[in-house]
Amino acid sequence: MEWSDLRIFLAIAQEGTLGAAARKLAQTQPTMGRRLRVLEDALGHTLFQRTKDGFVLTDEGSTLLGHAERMEAEALAIERRLAGQTQQLEGLLRITSSDWFGAHVLTPVLAEFSVLHPKVTIELLTDARFLSLSRREADVAFRIRPFDEPDVVSRKLLHMRYRAYLRRGIAHPMAGDGTGSALLALDSAFAGVPDDSWLQTMLPKARTVFRSNSRDVQARMCAHGVGIAVLPIPLADATAGIEPIDLGTEPPGRDTWVGYHRDLRRLPRLRALLELVIARLANGSSGRQ
């Protein structure tokens, strides 16, 4: 039994389908299927039931899963510890953040870092999911809530300000309750996000005409005159054709946190990146008055 085969078993168990597991490990589906059959033959047990909805663990597969997860945790710990001892300012740094934060807040800092340290390769993963630092899906993460993962070193980086925006030149309806106004909101997966709820409260009679899980898409729709959007100020500043509107109060802002696994705390390229990020962004609040 080889660890590489157990990694394939784990990926299939975690993702539920061969296709998703293959994408996760950057392998082909036929290779994944062949390696799984080799593992099952070696163990003498069927580890998954093949159903129309995907792969479901058998009793034997469930028994193996716990052992494989502990082996993975040890293997990842070895990788992190060895990576943390590397003293060269070169290699890969994998960073994760939301799409708009990566595009409009991080990229100027990352561009400066690349000039200062050309031997370090930056991989920026903009994803709505919270990638795991313990599993080394990312080395550094920027999130809008405190980290609760064990063994993660984190700090509050900045407070992000938001404002309400409308296409420049469009008169905002005078009705204080939003009658006649159109709103651009986040989709249902983000229900209850403070700034989105604030907009609904400030304009209760307005009609929501568009929803998206992307702040950038909201900004573009706002620039096309579709309706009112609440946007982070750096994103709005980078979007031509929109202007802030006064609804009486400012939307609630959001804190942004940065975190990394403690095993990487001595990694020189990580320390260099964090020093630059903190120097450029940790100013207490992001967004001009």
Automatic annotation (TrEMBL):
SUPFAM superfamilies, per the entry: Periplasmic binding protein-like II, Winged helix' DNA-binding domain
HTH lysR-type domain segment(s): 1-58
Cross-referenced Pfam families: HTH_1 (PF00126), LysR_substrate (PF03466)
Biological process, per Gene Ontology: DNA-templated transcription
GO MF, one annotated term: sequence-specific DNA binding
Keywords assigned: DNA-binding, Transcription, Transcription regulation
Family (UniProt): Belongs to the LysR transcriptional regulatory family.
PANTHER family: HTH-TYPE TRANSCRIPTIONAL REGULATOR, TRANSCRIPTIONAL REGULATORY PROTEIN
Name recorded for this polypeptide: DNA-binding transcriptional LysR family regulator
Originating organism: Dokdonella fugitiva
